[in-house]
């Protein structure tokens, strides 16, 4: 998928070491995911992970993942992560990754849940712009920093796939 010069494709095993490197860079204070965590996420059949690149076949500069749980007619989606390298922020990569995740949820008519740091105003604004509302707070959610997180939800949207019993 190409969005305004950004290239989004599936995250794959060769991308894992780059993702783990970015995690250490971006989330050093909050238990960054190691390569084994990314491998486990890619192995789970209910997860979909995507990579943002600045050119086809280029290095990963952002990534995002979503799980689809439940069964036809009652699916729910949870966004696990959206991350963009500091060198590529402010260029629409996060918005493009979120759009791809929401397409997954919309294809099966699922509501979408996520957690976001309460001090991440940029992400909160992005999510609210896409229909998410705050539904709660998780105290000390991020460890070891102890930062709080908002739980946010975007209600399910209807689509042709939903009406015809679409699958994730």
TrEMBL record:
Pfam families: Acetyltransf_1. Coiled coil: none annotated. One of its GO terms (molecular function) is N-acetyltransferase activity. Residues 6-157 form the N-acetyltransferase domain. The keyword Acyltransferase applies. The keyword Transferase applies. InterPro entries: AcTrfase_RimI/Ard1, Acyl_CoA_acyltransferase, Bact_Acetyltransf, GNAT_dom. SUPFAM superfamilies: Acyl-CoA N-acyltransferases (Nat). Keywords: Acyltransferase, Transferase. This is Putative ribosomal-protein-alanine acetyltransferase. It comes from Gordonia rhizosphera NBRC 16068.
């Amino acid at each position: 998928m190409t969005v305004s010069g950004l290239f989004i494709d599936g995250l794959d095993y060769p991308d894992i070491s780059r993702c783990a490197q970015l995690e250490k860079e971006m989330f050093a204070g909050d238990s960054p995911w190691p390569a084994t965590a990314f491998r486990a996420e890619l192995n789970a059949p209910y997860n979909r992970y995507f990579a943002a690149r600045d050119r086809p076949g280029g290095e990963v500069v952002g990534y995002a993942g979503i799980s689809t749980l439940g069964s036809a007619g009652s699916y729910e989606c949870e966004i696990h992560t959206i991350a963009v390298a500091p060198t590529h922020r402010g260029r629409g990569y996060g918005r493009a990754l979120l759009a791809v995740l929401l397409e997954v949820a919309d294809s099966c008519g699922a509501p979408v849940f996520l957690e976001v740091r309460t001090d991440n105003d940029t992400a909160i604004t992005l999510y609210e712009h896409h229909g998410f509302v705050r539904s709660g707070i998780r105290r000390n959610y991020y460890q070891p920093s102890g930062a709080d997180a908002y739980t946010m939800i975007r209600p399910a949207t209807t689509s042709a796939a939903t009406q015809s019993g679409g699958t994730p």
